[in-house]
Design the sequence.
């Protein structure tokens, strides 16, 4: 079995290496064949593992496969922890990745147009490079989720960040892409810094990097306090959990570290689907769920998680309403949905969070790929104000996007309904301080989600076509490599909701996710659960469904029936509109305060510290001193034999003097 | 069977004599046969000594010879490193018209000397092994007779080497006088007895340490190193800079820990002085060098400083770290000098730093190999040099000599400068000439294997480290 | 006992004197001759230690063979003495101080305190029938066979090295090659040229 586990991440890695290093030799077809083969192998193996571990109830695997080094009793190793959570994650990751790989063949087919024609940048192997990157990403993500220790987790964490950086800036001749990937990189650095501090604290207090060891020792650490700032006592576990969660905030784009995700849409659409919707951004969610034994021990950390999640869920949703770029709308919806998952984690409904992660991966990848399909048809015009009426030209894209949107807003019987409604119910049942307010926030989020989703849907697929004639003449359904993944993703977008029975209310996660009985909300909900249909009936008694319907109706009325209202509202609430369009001024704030401040401090340090002290005195100074010493001392090397012999004699004399004479004297 | 533990030595000696005779009857164009025979000898020898790795410790021939796992491992490494040396040397010798059988015969005798040294269990054998090694090396340094630099280097090496041997011998005779025995085991026992002999022993120790330090090339007994490395033909430099360091390590183990373990306090202090001086002088002066052979010579001195750190820790951990360092350093050194050979061609020595300019444009693969080697020497992960340094530093820290570790780290950071400078020259400067790089296939294979071995050992250091630990415990 | 001590000091003084002259005389031939003297007196000292075999070997091998060879070499080479001694005076004080210091330290350690009769037992005297030579012979090929063999390999290396470094065929030497001379054929030396007989003119 160990070899199978090893093969799952290594197959895409091999594909990535071949496509990356030998891209020119094997050509386009070679590159996509080899990477798809790699990811396909790991998907099939993942299914096998899922069946064995989850369905047949095989023993979870926890062991190391390679020890890098042992330092002072601390092992740095690569190891796998394969349990139900991992099995689920690797299946989702490899499935979505496989779909995206296939889809990319169509999307990147005419990538040459995306590069400036006069320069040689990108060509001739940008296509191969892209496949190499996404396969490499798959490898990194699999290493992340399969890890059994913090070091490998961190490795995977950084590796997905790196690939994300590379892919956001894939079209590196565009200044916006460079800006976006730098931004993503810097913002993630903030999160990673927290994450690293958390791991460091774990190492310092637990003296181990191994999950199992740390989790076993954690309960004994309750009550341990450390002094973060002089004079203040902090619960150790709270500090660790909050640091770890800061890492998750960076990667899963939670407020206030969310600013990079909308900009990351500068990258090609397939990676928006794969990395910035379905998989990488959920790494934070996965990590917190994996660390549930730690988080459960700190109520403070849980409340922190819940509040951050709720803020993200609601306020990022608002921004989706005013966006006009089709991908940005989906991006803000991703932010909002990640907020829902985080809320679920905060109220200890880890299973619900993971469940939503899974369903969201399917329908958000679907929505992104649908958006990509539209973008292909629109010749890379992404503004929804220029679209409209596309359903007549692109029936498959239309239907699948409708399915995705319905799933997203939580229409009964669609996947999103089950996962999202469970989260809302869980918040309702939670006893955490602040849960009452959060409940209202997530409910409001349902309305907002429906509003922006169907605003986009109506503007793109219904109404009168607003694009210019040239584009309209060429409008047609995209090729099969694009539509097949759409269809294949649409299926789980509907059906995966029915897994709610085992995953959330069953014992699928028994022994994997740790929930303190005092915080356990899902069991309470589960007592009222009597199958998917009754779940719907039960939901009819709650406000969520009606809010979603209200959102759809509002969207229809405002953007289809009576478009004048939109402009009217925009005029009347100009202040709010401006606030939203400027994304709460978060970017401006960051630019002015953090970037500007950092540049200011940097310039100051550069002038005084770098130019004056370091360059002038330390570096050049010490370099000059070393150079001077070296040039002087080398003259001792005269080349004269008797000088050499004499230096040996002197050396001997000094040794004798030191040890014999002084030794005898002492 | 008394002679079974000597199988490697006997085999090597017989083969050296056979090659000597065969070579006489070969015409110049068939000379490659001698080379092939020498390589086969080394490989077979390595196989023989590797097979003895699991054997029990055995002292035979009236206490003059010991066969233990440490000896088996070190012999195997010496033989394999020499295989690499010979591989690199062939094309260089052919191009300079000194491709003669004596080179390989003398090389084999030098290896024999090292093997004797590694397996010595008597002060007499240590001395004789050292002489056999040194004498062969003197002759090899002078091998390119038409080169004035080589003759000068050989002369210096010979005179200073004789002086050092004399000191070592004097120390050994003092030791004999004080303990009444040449057998290492008996010497150790005599030292362990309480007595009034302390001062004689320390006196003897001073001389022995000088002899050792000369062989290692530790400051202040290092003066020969740059001149000899610079003057000798590059394949000989390659040889001197690699395998004998492993032998010197073995010699230090036999003399200091096995014979004079009772004087640990004294030799620890001496080695500390030598190590610190070597780290300082080696790293600092290397910066001022413009000739890569000289630069690598000073880098050797600095590496010796590190090697001594492990020894002076005086723990099994330290010894195994040092052993790991010696073996892996030999691997890096043959690669570094091998690159000089690789870039040289008939009538042209690529031994200036400027000759490395723009190597990446001329051959990305070899530039990459050199990059690995340089990073490894500088101690950058994931190359093996990092792990070797780490292990040594750990050992030093575990005996509470943190200041020493700090000094070592500080100076290896200074040292990183001149390694990285090579990288800069290779990747960021324009090449000076546009002469095509003509590299023979065996050279290409040797260099690629060498670079990849450094990288692989860096990623999987556990195996070799475990062996080093196992042979010492 | 008294006489033996007297002989020891005579030999010792001559030995030190001769050794000092080896490195101070100007003429290399004189230096070699002083070295011969040093060997002789040294052999005398060894005789006092009952090491008869070694004493005889020293005289036979070193004085008889090595030194004579040395003399040949020194006499054949015309070494100009004066440049070698440049700086001798300049470095003398420094060298003298270092030598003195080392001597002082050696004296401190190697004095009577550590190597005197009470520290090291006086070896027992052997009778007249005791054969030093036989004793050496007994251990040389048994206890010390391994060092002995290594020593022989060292000599072999010395031979190889000496030949490898000096034997070469210079292009400008006028050496004869008897094989070539014997194997020479008539055709190599004599060329028959057929010419038309000139016609008698008129």
Sequence:
């Amino acid at each position: 079995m160990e070899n199978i586990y090893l093969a799952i991440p290594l197959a895409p890695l091999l594909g990535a290496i071949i496509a990356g290093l030998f891209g020119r030799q094997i050509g386009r077809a070679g590159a996509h064949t080899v990477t798809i083969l790699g990811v396909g192998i790991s998907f099939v193996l993942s299914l096998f593992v899922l069946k064995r571990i989850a369905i047949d109830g095989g023993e979870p695997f926890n062991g190391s496969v390679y020890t890098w080094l042992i330092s002072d009793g601390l092992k740095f190793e690569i190891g796998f922890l394969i349990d139900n959570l991992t099995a689920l994650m690797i299946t989702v990751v490899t499935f979505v990745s496989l779909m995206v790989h296939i889809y990319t063949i169509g999307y990147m087919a005419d990538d040459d147009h995306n590069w400036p024609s006069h320069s040689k940048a990108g060509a001739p192997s940008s296509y191969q490079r892209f496949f190499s990157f996404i396969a490499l990403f798959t490898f990194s993500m699999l290493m992340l989720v399969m890890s059994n220790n913090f070091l490998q987790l961190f490795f995977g964490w950084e590796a997905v960040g790196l690939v994300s950086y590379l892919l956001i800036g894939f079209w590196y001749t565009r200044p916006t892409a460079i800006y976006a990937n730098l931004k993503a990189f810097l913002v993630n650095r903030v999160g990673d810094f927290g994450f690293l501090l958390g791991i460091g604290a774990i190492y310092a207090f637990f003296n181990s990097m191994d999950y199992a060891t740390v989790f076993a020792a954690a309960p004994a650490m309750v009550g341990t306090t450390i002094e973060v700032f002089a004079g203040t006592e902090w619960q150790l576990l709270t500090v660790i959990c909050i640091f770890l969660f800061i890492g998750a905030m960076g990667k899963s784009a939670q407020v206030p570290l969310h600013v990079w995700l909308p900009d990351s849409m500068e990258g090609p659409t397939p990676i928006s689907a794969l990395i910035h919707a379905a998989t990488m951004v959920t790494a934070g969610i996965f990590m917190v769920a994996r660390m549930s034994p730690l988080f459960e021990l700190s109520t403070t950390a849980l409340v922190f998680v819940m509040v951050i999640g709720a803020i993200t869920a609601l306020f990022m949703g608002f921004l989706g309403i005013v966006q006009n770029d089709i991908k940005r709308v989906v991006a803000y919806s991703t932010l909002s949905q990640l907020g829902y998952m985080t809320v679920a984690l905060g109220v200890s409904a880890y299973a619900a969070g993971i469940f939503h992660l899974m369903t969201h991966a399917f329908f958000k990848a679907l929505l992104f790929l649908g958006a990509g399909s539209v973008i292909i048809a629109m010749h890379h015009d992404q503004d929804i104000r220029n679209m409209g009426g596309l359903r007549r030209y692109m029936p498959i894209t239309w239907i699948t996007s409708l399915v995705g949107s319905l799933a997203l807003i939580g229409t009964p019987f669609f996947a999103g309904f089950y996962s999202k409604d469970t989260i809302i119910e869980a918040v309702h049942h939670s006893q955490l301080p602040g849960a009452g307010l959060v409940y209202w926030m997530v409910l409001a989020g349902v309305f907002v989600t429906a509003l922006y989703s169907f605003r986009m849907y109506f503007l793109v697929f219904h109404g009168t076509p607003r694009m210019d004639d040239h584009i309209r003449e060429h409008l047609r359904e995209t090729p099969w490599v694009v539509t097949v993944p759409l269809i294949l993703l649409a299926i789980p977008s509907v059906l995966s909701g029915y897994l709610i029975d085992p995953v959330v209310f069953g014992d699928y996660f028994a022994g994997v996710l740790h929930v303190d009985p005092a915080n356990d909300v899902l069991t309470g909900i589960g007592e009222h659960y009597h199958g998917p249909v009754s779940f719907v009936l039960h939901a009819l008694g709650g406000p969520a469904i009606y809010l979603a319907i209200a959102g759809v109706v509002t969207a229809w009325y405002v953007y289809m029936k009576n478009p004048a209202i939109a402009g009217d509202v925009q005029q009347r609430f100009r202040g709010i509109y401006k606030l939203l369009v400027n994304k709460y001024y978060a970017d401006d704030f960051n630019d002015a305060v953090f970037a500007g401040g950092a540049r200011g401090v940097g310039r100051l340090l550069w002038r005084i510290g770098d130019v004056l002290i370091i360059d002038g005195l330390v570096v050049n100074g010490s370099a000059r001193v070393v150079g001077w010493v070296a040039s002087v001392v080398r003259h001792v090397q005269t080349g004269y034999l008797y000088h050499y012999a004499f230096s040996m004699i002197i050396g001997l004399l000094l040794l004798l003097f030191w040890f014999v004479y002084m030794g005898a004297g002492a | 069977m008394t002679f079974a533990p000597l199988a490697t030595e006997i085999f090597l000696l017989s083969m050296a004599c056979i090659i000597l005779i065969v070579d006489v009857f070969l015409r110049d164009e068939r000379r490659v046969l001698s080379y092939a025979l020498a390589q086969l000898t080394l490989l077979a020898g390595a196989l023989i000594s590797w097979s003895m790795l699991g054997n029990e410790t055995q002292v035979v021939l009236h206490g003059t010879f010991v066969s233990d796992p440490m000896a088996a491992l070190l012999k195997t490494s010496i033989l394999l490193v020499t295989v690499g040396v010979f591989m690199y040397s062939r094309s260089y010798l052919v191009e300079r018209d000194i491709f003669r059988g004596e080179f390989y015969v003398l090389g084999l005798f030098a290896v024999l000397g090292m093997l004797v040294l590694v397996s010595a269990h008597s002060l007499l054998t240590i001395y004789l092994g050292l002489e056999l090694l040194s004498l062969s090396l003197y002759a090899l340094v002078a091998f390119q007779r038409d080169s004035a630099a080589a003759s000068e280097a050989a002369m210096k090496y010979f005179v200073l080497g004789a002086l050092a041997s004399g000191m070592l011998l004097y120390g050994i005779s003092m030791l004999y006088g004080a303990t009444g025995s040449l057998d290492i085991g008996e010497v150790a026992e005599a030292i362990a007895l309480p007595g009034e002999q302390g001062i004689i022993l320390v006196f003897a120790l001073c001389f022995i340490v000088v002899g050792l330090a000369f062989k290692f090339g530790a400051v202040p007994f290092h003066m020969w190193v740059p001149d000899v490395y610079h003057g000798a033909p590059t394949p000989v430099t390659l040889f001197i800079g690699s395998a004998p360091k492993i032998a010197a390590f073995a010699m230090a183990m036999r003399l200091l820990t096995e014979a004079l373990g009772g004087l640990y306090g004294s030799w620890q202090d001496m080695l500390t002085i030598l190590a610190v001086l070597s780290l300082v002088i080696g790293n600092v002066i290397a910066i001022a060098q413009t000739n890569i052979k000289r630069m690598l010579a000073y880098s050797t001195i600095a590496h010796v400083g590190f090697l001594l750190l492990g020894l002076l820790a005086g723990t099994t951990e330290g010894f195994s770290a040092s052993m790991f360092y010696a073996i892996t350093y030999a691997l890096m050194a043959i690669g570094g000098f091998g690159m000089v050979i690789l870039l040289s061609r008939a009538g042209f020595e690529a031994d200036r730093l400027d000759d490395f300019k723009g190597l990446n444009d001329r051959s990305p693969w070899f530039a990459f190999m050199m990059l690995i080697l340089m990073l490894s020497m500088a101690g950058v992960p994931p190359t093996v040099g990092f792990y070797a340094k780490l292990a040594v530093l750990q050992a030093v820290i575990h005996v509470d000599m943190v200041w020493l570790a700090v000094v070592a780290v500080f100076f290896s950071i200074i040292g990183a400068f001149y390694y990285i400078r090579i990288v800069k020259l290779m990747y960021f400067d324009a090449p000076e000439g546009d002469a095509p790089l003509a590299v023979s296939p065996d050279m290409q294979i040797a260099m690629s294997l060498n670079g990849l071995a450094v990288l692989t050992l860096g990623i999987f250091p556990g195996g070799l480290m475990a062996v080093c630990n196992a042979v010492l415990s | 006992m008294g006489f033996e001590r007297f002989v020891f000091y005579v030999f010792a003084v001559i030995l030190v004197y001769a050794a000092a002259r080896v490195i101070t005389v100007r003429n290399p031939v004189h230096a070699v001759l002083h070295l011969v003297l040093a060997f002789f007196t040294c052999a005398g000292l060894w005789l006092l230690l009952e090491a008869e075999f070694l004493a005889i070997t020293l005289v036979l091998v070193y004085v008889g063979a090595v030194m004579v060879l040395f003399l040949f070499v020194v006499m054949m080479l015309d070494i100009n003495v004066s440049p070698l001694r440049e700086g001798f005076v300049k470095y003398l004080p420094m060298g003298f101080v270092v030598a003195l210091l080392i001597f002082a330290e050696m004296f401190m350690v190697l004095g009577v305190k550590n190597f005197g009769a009470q520290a090291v037992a006086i070896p027992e005297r052997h009778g007249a029938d005791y054969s030093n030579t036989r004793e050496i012979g007994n251990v040389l090929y048994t206890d010390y066979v391994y060092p002995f063999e290594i020593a022989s390999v060292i000599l072999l290396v010395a031979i190889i090295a000496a030949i490898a470094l000096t034997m070469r065929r210079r292009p400008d030497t006028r050496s004869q090659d008897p094989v070539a001379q014997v194997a020479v054929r008539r055709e190599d030396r004599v060329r028959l040229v057929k010419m038309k007989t000139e016609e008698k003119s008129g």
